[in-house]
């Protein structure tokens, strides 16, 4: 009889700290990330016939290059379908990361951990080790974020590896702007965690603004494709903070809107040809059947 395994894996939204989960920064200084999984999924199906031949098929709610960690989620699904068994979510996440490393994809571990675990994550990256911090945002903070955080897929193509290579080349050369930007981004993760756990919304806004400052220090080109749409929303007060999701330079953005600014922001991004992504939290993570 044929064997069939289906795995459903969520993608993630990185709120603060992305970039600092990548070596060599995580080994030199330690990285820190806050993210959460959403109900947009990668589905992986493996079928093994009576002769042992394996076929794997994928489907995705989001295109690759969306900035939502689709590649990491896809590889978590692949590892879970083929070698899942009794392995823990952490083991599967690490195997998925190592698989990407074999393909010479330079990135961090946050995508794989978010895909495997789901929910909100506050993660420390100490070299090649991942430590999961106790983290439970207040329900009021979760509801506020759900209501006011607009995710928009721009359709602008980008390759995260290309963004990473330029930044890390400058890091290896000791570029003070890159190192300072990464420090700023890492600090924003701790501020973000505190803001969500205490429902201190001004801290969430501050954390997002700090991330933007830090990313501009890495490379202003990361934000350039988005400024024409987002800057007017910030100036009008419809959006109070924002960030590029993933490596930036294309893909998706997240806009934190004022109480009365959501409809204005949605209209502006749709007028620009961007797609507003309807979303909710995924609290289950990887599901195997």
UniProtKB/TrEMBL annotation:
Molecular-function GO terms, alphabetical: ATP binding; fucokinase activity
Pfam families: GHMP_kinases_N (PF00288)
Keyword annotations from UniProtKB, A to Z: ATP-binding, Kinase, Nucleotide-binding, Transferase
InterPro entries: GHMP_Kinase-Related, GHMP_kinase_C_sf, GHMP_kinase_N_dom, Ribosomal_Su5_D2-typ_SF
Top-rank lineage group of the source organism: Archaea
Keyword Ligase: no
Chain ranges of the GHMP kinase N-terminal domain: 43-119
GO biological process entries: GDP-L-fucose salvage
Listed PANTHER family: L-FUCOSE KINASE (PTHR32463:SF0)
Official protein name in the record: GHMP kinase N-terminal domain-containing protein
Organism of provenance: Candidatus Thalassarchaeum betae
């Amino acid at each position: 009889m044929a064997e069939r395994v289906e795995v459903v894996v969520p993608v993630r939204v990185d709120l603060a700290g992305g970039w600092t989960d990548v070596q060599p920064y995580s080994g030199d200084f330690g990285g820190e990330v806050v993210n959460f999984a959403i109900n947009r999924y990668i589905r992986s199906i493996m079928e093994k016939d009576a002769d042992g031949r394996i076929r794997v098929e994928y489907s995705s709610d989001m295109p690759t290059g969306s900035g939502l960690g689709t590649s990491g989620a896809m590889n978590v699904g692949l590892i879970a379908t083929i070698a899942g068994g009794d392995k823990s979510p952490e083991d599967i996440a690490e195997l998925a990361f190592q698989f990407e490393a074999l393909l010479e994809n330079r990135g961090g571990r946050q995508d794989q951990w978010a895909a495997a675990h789901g929910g909100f994550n506050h993660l420390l990256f100490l070299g090649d080790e991942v430590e999961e911090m106790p983290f439970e945002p207040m329900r009021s903070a979760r509801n506020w974020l759900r209501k006011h955080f607009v995710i928009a897929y721009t359709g602008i193509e980008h390759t995260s590896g290309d963004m990473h290579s330029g930044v890390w080349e400058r890091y290896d050369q000791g570029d003070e702007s890159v190192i300072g930007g990464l420090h700023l981004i890492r600090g924003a993760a701790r501020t973000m965690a505190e803001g969500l756990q205490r429902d201190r919304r001004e801290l969430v806004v501050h954390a997002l603004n700090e991330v933007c400052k830090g990313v501009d220090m890495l490379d202003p080109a990361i934000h350039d494709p988005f400024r024409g749409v987002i800057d007017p929303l910030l100036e009008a007060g419809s959006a109070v903070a924002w960030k590029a999701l993933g490596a930036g330079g294309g893909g998706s953005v997240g806009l934190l809107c004022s109480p009365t600014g959501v409809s204005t922001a949605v209209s502006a991004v749709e007028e620009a040809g961007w797609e507003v992504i309807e979303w909710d939290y995924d609290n289950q993570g990887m599901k195997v059947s």
